[in-house]
């Protein structure tokens, strides 16, 4: 079943790699995590490979539930928006996606920063909307407890709505800059948001004019019920974590099916599951790399990672024993979909704690694909052509080598098969993702518009 | 009275110029305000002129008290931290100073963003600490009223303390990246802040290691009593607004005199008053430029600017009449020092509202200096050599020309006189300002240190 559209690719810039032991790998740049030149090198590599975007995850705390996590894993990172702005100056075409939490930020700041990044990059910014999931983050923001899952999503819905209103608060042609008539802006085209909601009151207008893309691209990752609903209503890209084709297909048709409720078409939302590729020139080389990574995981780091992913402390349990009795899904106030995925994986395959953390230390719940460039391409093509994905978020095990291999070996194979672009389609991230530029709500519904002042 | 040290210079990047009518001036780039390439051009010009830093003011609302302000003045701007990060990639030596308010932000985010900018720029970041001063900003952040002046400063004190603790939460050598020993970081050198105060509780540690400069440079601008005290305790650069040598000298010795209370030396704080230069190749050319700018001010924009500066609505009063009876200083919940300065200026010189706004439409309360490059240099030299300033924050009337003139005509004259550097002294902003790198509190007082975990 051939598709006429092309696959979309994101490069996950987790430095120095997506594998928890990546920093110990012989070819990885362990100190690159705070070295801007290293990020630039990675971003330029992704741009050379014609990736749609680079993507930065984020969090607002170190993981310190387990003493050795702080010692054995990489717990520092640059802040995504400052970093992506610098990369905007050093790249030309690639999209720039930053994770920002709606739980610990304010809509006005977030609207403004992404609008600024959109101007600085000439229309290449994207916001990955998350709601955060650790208690440690709450304690860095004067709160004792992390907000409950349902409330986080309620807040997120309102937050995204306000941000979009702020982006629309200046119509596209509101800036006039007419020196003769002393008219810098047309105030009939500038609108207050006057939002009064449960979580926020925001008067507006924004103090940045409408961004080049209209709205920066909205990305989401939640796969819980409220996460899917929020995505169907507001997201333009979804990053998800699925292990099997069937799971991915079910999710794909579920979410695409929800779009019509909000007046949206299936092509308005691109579903891009995460993929952790271990690439070898031969199958054996790929297997050796995988084994080497598993050796490099310190036990405590592995247990800490797994505990974090399921929001349950596994450190008191024997590492070669089975998973203990876990709480019910309803009691988990973290990443619910990740919890479910790992619990069912352990049950299905009877894995010990060690085997389970080795299994997830690279892909962290995402799909691991291993093999030669041809085999990697086959595995991507299968999902792309069978209703499971519109593209993939590539999570190289280590950097820069893991991404260089993908760009130099896999991308040409995908291009040969006609699955991936050989040049960028346009100048903005929306152009390259094949997403339309949103119409301004005020232009669209003139009856509702009202000047800020006058 | 010759000084052995050199003058420091900041370039105020108000786009398209510091004069309120700059965007109407024939040679200004009116649309430059959202054009990254224009900021890059200005920053590179300042770097060519060996300026210590570029400086970005900021605010979180449009001014909309007066209907025409939105139409006749420039009310949009890019967000400073995203913008400066891009400029970090496009410059080599110049310092990058961003204004961020303590009233509408969180210490964890601010500490992290400036630390990131410091890494990205290789030690060139600076934070201008302000407390905001308009009701419109409050209404963009779910608050009905702007916080009172005293409370803003109380919050600011605590905010800055927490940010500095977060910058110190990783000792300078905490990052080890030892692959063999599986030791990425030395956790005995990573510290929680465990701050519990009136305004904030912040557990820490930060998720960025200690910045290259130790602490990004701290700048302040407040000249009220709590502003001066906050500056004496925490600031390393002060931007101030003074019209006369005597006022500037009084302030200079007052603030420098307060430093010893906090164990600081006079050289630990650089005082850099704002200066608005109108440069001509002849005195007449400078006078003509000034007259041209005054012609270009729309009446409503002039009245709105003046009203904003004194936090009092002047629009109901005849523009060619005197200032009305103004409230007492105690009742003003805005920039108190600016209010006082303008009120006494109007009283002293008997200016009408129109004359007063023409007078301040360029310098906005800062010192206006006008003349040939020699005369401009004389005026800077006088303050620098007579205990009134360690340098100046240059506010070009229009851009890029106003800065190009300063760099091409005034800087060479200052260099000839031995008053200004001919090359950068070092790689970081601290090096160039002649500020020492702060010792980490934990290294300094080992008895107080305590590992985060373990």
UniProtKB/TrEMBL annotation, chains A, B:
Keywords attached to this entry: Flavoprotein, FMN, Monooxygenase, Oxidoreductase
This protein's name: LLM class flavin-dependent oxidoreductase
Family: Belongs to the NtaA/SnaA/DszA monooxygenase family.
Family matches, as InterPro entries: Diverse_substr_monoxygenases (IPR051260), Luciferase-like_dom (IPR011251), Luciferase-like_sf (IPR036661), NTA_MOA (IPR016215)
Source domain of life: Bacteria
Keyword Flavoprotein found: yes
Record bears the keyword Disulfide bond: no
Domain (Luciferase-like) ranges: 34-388
Xref: NCBIfam families: FMN_nitrolo
